[in-house]
Amino acid sequence: xxxxxxxxxxxxxxxxxxxxxxxxxxxxxxxxxxxxxxxxxxxxxxxxxxxxxxxxxxxxxxxxxxxxxxxxxxxxxxxxxxxxxxxxxxxxxxxxxxxxxxxxxxxxxxxxxxxxxxxxxxxxxxxxxxxxxxxxxxxxxxxxxxxxxxxxxxxxxxxxxxxxxxxxxxxxxxxxxxxxxxxxxxxxxxxxxxxxxxxxxxxxxxxxxxxxxxxxxxxxxxxxxxxxxxxxxxxxxxxxxxxxxxxxxxxxxxxxxxxxxxxxxxxxxxxxxxxxxxxxxxxxxxxxxxxxxxxxxxxxxxxxxxxxxxxxxxxxxxxxxxxxxxxxxxxxxxxxxxxxxxxxxxxxxxxxxxxxxxxxxxxxxxxxxxxxxxxxxxxxxxxxxxxxxxxxxxxxxxxxxxxxxxxxxxxxxxxxxxxxxxxxxxxxxxxxxxxxxxxxxxxxxxxxxxxxxxxxxxxxxxxxxxxxxxxxxxxxxxxxxxxxxxxxxxxxxxxxxxxxxxxx
Amino acid sequence: xxxxxxxxxxxxxxxxxxxxxxxxxxxxxxxxxxxxxxxxxxxxxxxxxxxxxxxxxxxxxxxxxxxxxxxxxxxxxxxxxxxxxxxxxxxxxxxxxxxxxxxxxxxxxxxxxxxxxxxxxxxxxxxxxxxxxxxxxxxxxxxxxxxxxxxxxxxxxxxxxxxxxxxxxxxxxxxxxxxxxxxxxxxxxxxxxxxxxxxxxxxxxxxxxxxxxxxxxxxxxxxxxxxxxxxxxxxxxxxxxxxxxxxxxxxxxxxxxxxxxxxxxxxxxxxxxxxxxxxxxxxxxxxxxxxxxxxxxxxxxxxxxxxxxxxxxxxxxxxxxxxxxxxxxxxxxxxxxxxxxxxxxxxxxxxxxxxxxxxxxxxxxxxxxxxxxxxxxxxxxxxxxxxxxxxxxxxxxxxxxxxxxxxxxxxxxxxxxxxxxxxxxxxxxxxxxxxxxxxxxxxxxxxxxx
Amino acid sequence: xxxxxxxxxxxxxxxxxxxxxxxxxxxxxxxxxxxxxxxxxxxxxxxxxxxxxxxxxxxxxxxxxxxxxxxxxxxxxxxxxxxxxxxxxxxxxxxxxxxxxxxxxxxxxxxxxxxxxxxxxxxxxxxxxxx
Lengths: 504, 450, 131
Hints:
The complex is a heterotrimer of chains A (504), B (450) and C (131). Chain A is an alpha/beta fold and 504 residues long. Helix content of chain A is 36%, strand content 12%. Chain B is an alpha/beta fold. Chain B has two domains: 114 residues, Aspartate Aminotransferase, domain 1 (Alpha-Beta Complex), CATH 3.90.1150; 257 residues, Type I PLP-dependent aspartate aminotransferase-like (Major domain) (Aspartate Aminotransferase, domain 2). In chain B, the strands form five sheets. A seven-stranded mixed sheet of chain B has the order 2-10-9-8-7-3-4, sandwiched between helices. Chain B has a three-stranded antiparallel sheet with strand order 13-16-15, with helices on one face. In chain B, helix 6 runs parallel beside helix 12 and helix 7 packs across helix 8. Chain B starts with 9 loop residues before the first helix and ends with a helix. Chain C is built from three helices and nine strands; from the N terminus they run βββαβββββαβα. Chain C has a six-stranded antiparallel sheet with strand order 1-2-3-9-8-5. Chain C is globular, with a radius of gyration of 14 Å. Chains in contact: A-B, A-C, B-C. Chains A and B meet through helix 1, helix 2, helix 3, helix 4 and helix 5 of A and helix 1, helix 2, helix 3, helix 4 and helix 5 of B.
C-alpha cells in the first residue's frame, strides 16, 4: 500500500487520489491474511481444549482484530514512525521534560537475554546480577541525593510522589501524628503534586510565588500549622530558578514538625553539584527518564525512584533488597512498610538503563550533566533575551521561561510561536506552563546539545519574533510543514471517537 | 575519559561563557545557589567506564542471570514466557518511537497518536468493551485506578469486595491505595480454587460499590464470571474484571459477561519478562464512565483542511489541568510498551490470538494430564483452568523449585507468600512455547516431589 | 455583551437572578470568554440537591481548562437546565437567558444582597484582566 495515494472508483472509473491521512491498520485488513508464524496445532489440541474448557467459558466469535501480513504491519508502523519527532530526529527543547540524548549502549545492555528474560519469581540466587544492579543503583542515587533510603519501585515521577507521600503518612502515623493532612504546594508546581496529594487523602494548600518567582515566605508562614504534613517544592523551580531562600523555607517547615518533599523533576540542573538533602529535602523522587537518559518512548515507561532520609526508610514499599556481603535477596519482612504500590519490584528495564548510564558517566560525568545543562540554557537565554521578554532576569538554571505577551500583542500567541517552530524543523518548547507566567514558553535545551544547534534554534526564534512584529499572520498560520496542521480539538472533545468504528 | 554526550569543546565553552557574561560554569552556579549547598566533595561513585568496558562488565553481569532462554520455564503468576515475533522489537525500536515525548503537540506526533489510537481500538475489540485508555503502568495499578473510578461512579457506597483468588500483589496494592480513605476492603474467600459464590452473595449488599474478580484467577482456575456479574449488578455494584489478554483468544471477553470495568496486565502481549519490570496496564470500561477514565485518551480529530488525524482528548480529566481535582495523578502511560502490544496484536490477528490461546490451554492440559497420571491427588484444585494450575507438593515448593533447577527447569511460582498452608503449593504454567518433550521431561522431574 | 441589570455576581463568575420565587444561576459571558468559548462538558447537580453559598454545585470543562462552579446562593435545586449539557454553545450565545444552569429555591433570599452588582462585577473583571 502506498502512503501517498489511494485508488478511487467513481461511476465505474478508476482514478488515483492523494492520501490526506495515514491509513488505519484496520483499513489494511484482508480476511484470511496472517502475520504470525507458529508450529501448527498438535493433533490432540481440539480434544484437550474441549475437555479442559467447558463451552460456557468460550468466546462466541473471534476478536475483530485486523488480518494483516508481516510486511503490512512493518510498512504501516514504519510509516507512523516517520510522522513522529524524537530526540534522535530533532532538537526537542521541551521545558520541564529534559529531552536529552538517550545513549544506545543503554538499550543494548537492557536487551541482553540475562536482563530481559528474567522472571520475577525466579529464585533470587538465579538473578544475582539483576539484584546487584538494583542494589547498586539505589546506593548511587542515595549518594547523589544525600537521602540514603531508596525505593526503585515507583513506575513514574507522579507514582513516586504518591509513594513518598504514603511513606510520609505512615511515618506520621507511627509517631501519633496522623492528623497532619495538609500539603503546601506553590503555584509554580507541576499539576501532579496536588493530584498526588489528593490520592493519598491529603489536602493541597496552595501558596503564591513572590515577584521574584520564588516561594512567598510570608504567605508560607501564614499557612503553616499543626496540620501541615509537608511542603512539596520543586528546586530549581519550574521557572528555572533556584529557590535561594530554601534554607529559610526548610527551617520553617521543619520547625513546624513537617517535612520537605522535593519534586525531582528538575534534578538535571543540580545533579552532582548539589545534594538535595543539604538544602533540607527529606524525600524526593527522581525522574530517571529526565535526569538519567531513559528514552521517553512516546510518553513512557519511565521510572520514579524515591530517595528518603533514614528515618523514613522502614516505611518504603515492600520488598526491600538486601545485601549480606556475599549475596543479594528480597526482604519481604518489612512490618512498617506501606505495602505494595505496583506489581513485582519496579520498571526493571529503566533501572537497568539508569545503571548503565551512571556507570558510564562516573562521578565527573554526572557533574558534567548539570554543568553543561546550565551552560547551554544560559547561552540560549543570552541569544533570545533581546527579542523576547524574560521575566526573571538573565540567569537561569537548566531552563528558562519566556513571556510572549509582546508577541501576543503583535498578533502571535505563545501557541502560534510554538507551532511556527515546527516549520523550522524543531520540536516546540513547553507552552503555557508554569501557569503564573502569561504566554509562557518554557525552554530546556539539556546538556547534550551542541552550540551550533542552540544557535540554529535561536535563529529560528529570532526570525519568528521578526515575523511576529512585521506580519504575524505568517506565524499564526503555522504549522504548514507537518502531516496535519492544527487540529479541531473542540470537536474531538465534544464528540469523542476513541476507537476505530466496527465495520458492521 | 571522553564523555560522548557533552559536545562543547573548551573553545566553544569559552565563547558561550562570554556570551553569558560569566567567567566560568562554576560562577553561573554560584550566582544562583548559596555557597553552603555547593557539593565539592566526592560521592564515592564507582569509577567511570568506557563503552567498551560497559559492554564487557555489564555484559558479564547480565550473563550471571539465568533466564527463560537458557532454562525451560514453567513460571507464570502474572508474567509469562509467551512467543513474541521479531517484527515487534524491530519496529518498536525505531528511534522516532523510542525517543519521542508524550504527544502533546499533535502536529509533531501523529505517528505515536495513531499507534495509541490503534492500541485503544485493538484492546476494546479483544475485550469487547466500549472504551480503552492509552494504557497505565501495570495490571496492579490498573486495579488501583479502577477502584477510584468505581467509588466515583457509586459515590454513596464505600465497600469493595475483592476475591481471594485475585493476584496477591493486586490485592496488596488495593489495600495500600485505599488505606487513607473511608472505604471497606473485604476479601471474599475462595473455595476449591475459585471465588466462593455463597460467601460472595452473603457479603454483597447496598453498600457494595464494586466486586473485583480475576478470571482466569491467580490459581489459573476459571471463574463463573457471568454469575458474579449478575450478582454485582443485582446489588447495584460494578464488576471489575481482571483478565488475561492471551486467554481472550479462547475465553469469553469481559464485555460478553457484562463487566463494567475490565483491566489486565498486558506483559503477555509482546513484552518481555524483564524481572516483572516491562509491564502494561490495560484499562477498559463501559462508555458511561468515559469521563472518569484515568490516564490518556486519544481521539480522532480533523484539521482545517479536513485531514484526519489524532489528538489527546478529554484532557480536562488529567492532572496538568485539574490538579487536585483530576481523576488520577497519572501523567504517563506505558506508551512504548503499549506500542509493542499494538504491533503484537496486529501481527497475531484473530487467528494468531486464538492459536496461542488454544496451544497454551492444550499444553497446560497435557502437563496436567501427565501429572495426574503420576500423582492423581497432586492437582490442588479440580476447577477448569486455562494456562496454569496449582500442584500440591510433598516437599516445600521452594525446595521443589531448587531440585527442578538442577535439571534446568524453572518449576513455577512457590505459593508460600500466600500464607500458612500454601508452602507446599506450586503454581505451574505451560504456554504455547513449551514443547511436548519439555512438558514430559518436566513432569518426570516433578513426579518424585508429588 | 449587554448584561441584564438585575443579575448579581460572585467573583468566581457565577451569576444569580431572581426568577419569581426562585433564583436562576449561570456563569458570566466573561468566564465563557476566558474558556475560549470552547465548552465541551458540563456537570450539573440533580434536582433536590442542597447547595450553599460558595460551595461547588457543578463542573464546567473547556478543551484545556476546567473549573468548578460555585453557588452564589443557598437553597435547594428545583430545576436543572437539562438541555444545556447537550447544547453547551448556549452558554456562549445566551449566557444570561437560555444558558441558565440551575434554579434554586433559596433558603435565604438575602444572599442576593451580598453579591456584586453588574457595575462592580465589570470593574472586577477589568482589574482581573490587567492583573
